[in-house]
Amino acid sequence: MSATTAKKIDLEKHGALIALGALFVLASVIGWPYFIRPENLVNVMRQSSYTGIIALGMTFVIISGGIDLSVGAVAAFVASCGVLFMNWVLQAAGGNEVLAILGGVSVMIALGFAAGALNGLLITKGKIVPFIVTLGTMSIFRYLSLQMANAGEFASQSQLYGTFGMSKIFEFKVGDQAISLPIPVFTLLVLAAVLAFLLDNTRYGRYLCAVGSNARVAQYSAVRIDRVRFWAYAINGMCVGTTAALLAARFNTVSTPNFGLGFEMDAIAATIIGGTAMAGGRGSIWGTIIGVFMLQIIQNMLNMAGLSPYLQGVVKGIVIIGSVYIQKQRQ
Amino acid sequence: MSATTAKKIDLEKHGALIALGALFVLASVIGWPYFIRPENLVNVMRQSSYTGIIALGMTFVIISGGIDLSVGAVAAFVASCGVLFMNWVLQAAGGNEVLAILGGVSVMIALGFAAGALNGLLITKGKIVPFIVTLGTMSIFRYLSLQMANAGEFASQSQLYGTFGMSKIFEFKVGDQAISLPIPVFTLLVLAAVLAFLLDNTRYGRYLCAVGSNARVAQYSAVRIDRVRFWAYAINGMCVGTTAALLAARFNTVSTPNFGLGFEMDAIAATIIGGTAMAGGRGSIWGTIIGVFMLQIIQNMLNMAGLSPYLQGVVKGIVIIGSVYIQKQRQ
Amino acid sequence: MPDAILRVEKISKDFGSGPVLKDVDLEVRPGEILGIIGENGAGKSTLMKILAGIHQPTSGKVHVDGKAVRIADPIAARALKISLVPQEFNLIRDLPVYNNVFLGAELRKRSGVLDKEAMKARTRELLAQLSVDLDPEARIEGLSAAEKQMVEICKALAFDSRVLIMDEPTTMLTKYEIEILFRLVTKLRSEGMTILYISHKLKEVKHLCDRVVVLRDGELVHDGPTSDIGIVEMAQKMVGRELGSIFPAKGKPGDETVFEARGVTVPGVLEDISFQLRKGEILGLAGLVGAGRTELAETVLGLRHKSAGTFLKDGRELDLREPADAVAAGISYLSEDRQGAGIITTFTVTRNVTLVSLGEYCRSFFRLIDKKTEKTKVQGYVDSFHIKTDTLERRLENLSGGNQQKVSLAKAIDTSPSVLIVDEPTRGVDVSAKHEIYVFINELARKGISCLLISSELEEIIGMCDRVLVMRDGRIAGTLEGDRITEEQIMYHATGVQEEAAS
Amino acid sequence: KVYKVGVSMPSATHGWMGNANWWAQRAEKDWEARDKAVQIELKFSGNVNQQVADIEDLLVKKVDALVVFPHDTSVTSIVEKAFNAGVYVVVLDRGVSKEGIYDIYITNDDEAYTRKGMEWLAKQMGFKGNLLLITGIPSPIDTIRTDTIKEVVKKYPNIKLLDVQPGDWNRQKSLTVMENYLQKYKQIDAVYTADDDMMLGAMQAYKESGRKDIKLFLGGGCLKSVIKEIMDDSNPLVKADVTYSPSVIATSISYAVIGVKGEKLNPNVYQVRALPRRIILPSELVTRENAKDFYVPEAPF
Ligand SMILES: Nc1ncnc2c1ncn2[C@@H]1O[C@H](COP(=O)(O)OP(=O)(O)OP(=O)(O)O)[C@@H](O)[C@H]1O
Ligand SMILES: Nc1ncnc2c1ncn2[C@@H]1O[C@H](COP(=O)(O)OP(=O)(O)OP(=O)(O)O)[C@@H](O)[C@H]1O
Ligand SMILES: [Mg+2]
Ligand SMILES: [Mg+2]
Fold it and tell me: N or C: which terminal CB in chain D sees fewer CB atoms within 10 Å?
């Protein structure tokens, strides 16, 4: 698979890859010497991965012609519930941390799915536009979490969960430094491979593009458009649940007012930078991955360059526009 | 004009009006007895008018098939420059406040136009998608203002300007109470009438819908689509400049970190609730006005009901979805 | 006689603005080709869409194999093995050809993964059957209208169906392709497939179909074998009155050149195109699908960038960079791609007709649209072209295909051009309306307007044109005039057979 | 040796944080001008994820000291990592959820902040009357403040707390909330907002309404325009303020510099350790008498 996928990227995402490359060179120069240090690159990848995983699901939603503004709020809600459940299992099971973690993570992914499904149902059965539905559920889920925690936080009682959040796998050596892949990055890449495969090689993937491009035509071609749309939100919900689990583990705590705040914009931006059409019908998971990395590299580069904070904001805006411009020119 | 316009609304916005009506009744009940007091209704209108004016311009942008995320940041930027200019004129002209205010307001509207034009040019000439362009300029303009003020505020030295921000016109009596129309509400309604007229009765309005519906057909039909798109952003920019002038007058100062914060989401939400299609091609100014009022009524009603803040958030989400659902059913 | 495979019983349909179908009874027998004809807006497409599950009848029943069925959606139609080649393109722009062909009926490997290679191979096969040279991986966006039509046909053939409905499949095709299609259809019939065939080209219907039914204003007014009815009679039954000669007498074009192309080249598409268009002349542009006729028109409009050559109008060189420039120079274009480039389906009749010419209605001091004049003018077109619509405020998506075409033509004419380029102007319009359009174009020519008529219908070219350019592979292969404008001559130039013989 | 000090704090979305950002920049400038061996790098972040990323980036740049003004306690694990890596860590305000992973913890006193304010306000009200409250964005510190206010009010049965609504630390939002309050309550005696920014919004609404019933507004956090009014006694509605110093960030940066260099705060005084571990800055009541001590004309707000 990887060979054909790689070819796909080469062909379709030429522009995006060139833009990423140009940005990488720019970052290496501006962020010299810190940017290209292996630990920094691992950091960049890890920093990208939380919103990155959501951006994968968002790519499905946007290809289907929709949008999901509720991802950040849903992340906060499912993380809260998950941590509460985890703590409960920990007590009930007499301190069995592995069981508690498994339980908590499952609850988060399941609730993520449920929240996505709720969005999907309101959109398909209720026939309300995605923007409004998810604007509404954004408010609902955020305030539900605040209500649960009285605007405070839920701390996990499992030490292991926190360790898991920071753990790494696949250690290897670069020069004399041991570099390893953090779990979230690993998850991001695995999920990307799975979703890219789903998009490129299954019926569902084709239907998704068809529905996003022209729902009427898809319907006339015997595609169950509501079902296709529904699953886009449900899959996105599971991605949100996954991010919630990883991020809660990272912090080993869920602060309800802040958890996931602004994720929706980051995820949408990464998706669009990655070449997915805002109007739906066209997009690629690998493009989104590139978009996610580009955004994070820009941020990291500016940090490494040590510009004044306000100037950073200005330059960031310029570089975002510039990168997409380069990408456009090459297409 | 008003007769035909009213008819237009009746026909096109039946659903939206019914939803507004339903909401109004709900608000009167829940917010009893405060909600339906004339002064409260005037308040609701004034509260709506700042983002409302931006929502009018946003309607044009969205009809054209685009989006503008930079409105809040542009508002902060042009308000900062405008107040600085106003203070400068005040000094140079030896305290002529009227001249200073005229100058300052003109600068704000002109700069708003310029910022919108910049967005428009990047989108049409640079061929970069609107989401990315305005995401970039959002960052650029916000941080430019912060840089200028060192994240602080610019206070206007004209007392009159502040008075102007609070002034009202058209006093009339309801029962034994004197009710009057605040300037921002007046501006909102006048601008709405002008833009609705532009949309319905001029070439530009037609072309705007054509470009948003099907850019290819519009192009084949000798419509200069780039020019049409450009003007949508430029007009939106002028609306942003107008809001900036009114809001700066209200406080008689511009606090750069939070001036206009979040306006983009409010304006987009109002536009979409008002029935403008996210994908472009279709929309109405009066629908947007209804959307703006609906959002503010929801907020006001919940405040008046004195719900706990968390519950307010949850209910708000439900009511937003519910109102649009009603609107949908009636169409 | 075998039992009916498909029986329609007392089907009525009302979209809310009066009945479109009134108690239609129809039997379709297995293995026949049934022709369905009728005026624009008679309800043909609506009936077919009911069979394909796109619309639901207001009342009445559909029986398949003698059993009453409810075709609730296209999925149900597919389960009943009914497939439709719709009148308007139903293709996903963002997907390649082979995915469109198999949309909703994807071939999968045993693991459930898409079998792309098999789909591509099958697509190639289907396209080869239609003699279309097209890459299965090509994007829909880049295809010409005729090629899209071919893809639509492949799409209907891609899954194993028993009943194939074809709604005006030949409007975009030239004689050559039509023959290939007919061979294929006849072959399918011999394999036991049942075909419902809608067309306004009565000769085709006569030639191809076993039986023909006529719809008029939503009612079935004739049902009988094709052998019992002549073409003139068919037309009579459709419109309910006598029809005279379809083409008006040709006029006498002037001598002065109004529009001229000199050595126009667009890399890879057009090569060294030169021609002159005289005042009041109707100049035909013939050629096979993909010969580059549409491209030539688009180049005149400034939609394609030429690498060499010039266009001249009244002796002056034109700088055409976008359609607005062409319109300003008095050139107007009717696109062949009705829904892709011609009309905005979500716009009303009025708004579509005046889209290009809107400036003419903004003559007042404040440059406001003069809606009253606009309405009067549009009503004029509706009357003279018999555009079937209950109100001018109807959105075009709710008009029948032929009526959309008439709106599209009205839109091109409303700019009062001095050079009119029409690309397949009578695509999908019925015989009587065709006649009216011909008369109209002829009158324009008499008034001194020059017309470039691009058409795949040779009859139309022969009946209307003073002179004919034949294109092949992006070049002008020959110019025909007077008596030399014959079917044989055009085909020879278009296919290049004569040239080879000569050399 | 050059000492690199990294500072990570929220970016300004309201006046108080605007002041804090300014103080951070001022401390940077002052220290760098004063001591060539000190290099300070500021990072302002919009959310906690960005903040964690910023801290990670600072660690890649091998800072010697780290000052963290957290969005919330989610930064705990990265702070711990920095501390374990030997970085000199100063944590502020909202803090971290684990003990012993910092060298210094400095905070304003949230409880005293509102307790002082509310006690003063109660006294001014004559321990009776109708009070309205506008709070910030729902969050732990906001909860502490609100609870403290409610607790104090409970001591005085004649003070009636009519309503509590969030103003999101935003002037415009607070103005809207106040407009609604004015519709709803016919007799209001005092309004307590969680900071001065929101007080200015609320006061604007009151001014526009033309009503005459409210006697007092109290905010907090000492915006310079408010302090100036107190100092000049130019606004009968505003008579006091409570400090919640935005300069805490500058103080922290200074501690970080001193701490990382291993210096003592005051060489003349005997100290067990180089610096104290926990520092709680008192909240002070600002009235006309002492206002000029808190007036910083150069500050942005
Ligand atoms: N969705 C719809 N809503 C309202 N009216 C419709 C709709 N679809 C079709 N009609 C009307 O129904 C009538 C029949 O349309 P139909 O498309 O069946 O005609 P047709 O016989 O196929 O004509 P043509 O030869 O032009 O394709 C037309 O008058 C049309 O305006
Ligand atoms: N945008 C495009 N990109 C790539 N190829 C194109 C594009 N547009 C057209 N073509 C190709 O150019 C060729 C000529 O198309 P054109 O539409 O000019 O043919 P035509 O002579 O008008 O025939 P007809 O109208 O009968 O299809 C076709 O093979 C088409 O696939
Ligand atoms: Mg039809
Ligand atoms: Mg053609």
Answer: N
